[in-house]
Amino acid sequence: MLIKQAADIRSREITPRDLYVRRREFLKAAGLTAAGVLAGAFEPDAAVAAVPGEKLTVAKRLVTTTEALTPQTAVTSYGNFWEFGSDKSDPPKNAGAFKPKPWSVAVEGLCARPGTYTLEDILKPHALEERIYRMRCVEGWSMVIPWVGFPLADLIARFKPTSAAKYVAFTTVERPREMPGQNDAVLDWPYREGLRMDEAMNPLALLAFGMYGEVMPNQNGAPVRAVVPWKYGFKSGKSIVKIRFVEKEPGTAWNKAARNEYGFYSNVNPNVDHPRWSQATERRIGEDNIFAKKRPTLMFNGYEAQVGQLYAGMDLKKFY
User: Fold this and answer.
1) Rg, C-alpha atoms of the chain
2) Euclidean distance between CA atoms 267 and 302, whole angstroms
3) Cβ distance 32 to 3 under 8 Å?
4) I need a surface site. Which of 28, 93, 181, 209 has the fewest CB within 10 A?
5) Domains of the chain and CATH, by start
């Protein structure tokens, strides 16, 4: 696994003190090899909270980078969530009216246990984990975020997809009264996303319910979202209401809206430029904003050792 040391940043520019204290604890577990990550190189912690509240208690922690956490205020105030608006500052401004409870997720398609499950149903059998992941968005900005959730593979295993299920399709909520961005025709709502089954089953893929030890904010995908750290930020479906197991590659929102720009795979690849942006470098949010020094983008966002084998033999310029 590729591990980078944190940049030389002034203390006032990085994580607030309470998060910094937690980060020191995280870094004790940071000497991870690729094998260690996949084998579950976790640090045990307190008892599990089966149902999320304002604060979430985790059973395990996984650190995949020694880079400094992005300040929580930066993560919750800047990002892509087009259901709340196209500007990076729109989600926190427009997400207040969104109601993430009660919540249910429909499970459909080629599986042995279809049905509609409440959020409590989904959470109950699983231990929550805190995972520090690098995240890089297609426009060239990146963050380091401590997510809270459990492996997507664990959820998939519960529903027992059949051998014919080659893909997992996600549909997110459609509520234009609560999500003003859905009143614009920029995308064909509701937002749809998908992963190949082996991508979804990779140990790094996470079903997330919170971050920074707290329940997921509305503007970041409450109450449940996917986190796939080796793919661009837009690939992770937020506010999921349906999971469907299918045989053929599912249509996805951005692939349908701009097929020449957004392929199905959407891997972080510094060697393949987006038509409007270079993918060779990135700017870390929270580091002097637009004046931050750009850093080289890592193949598969630094997770090549864990996920590179998924794309062995594929032409990644064709399957972008």
Assistant:
1) 18
2) 11
3) yes
4) 28
5) 11-311 (3.90.420.10)
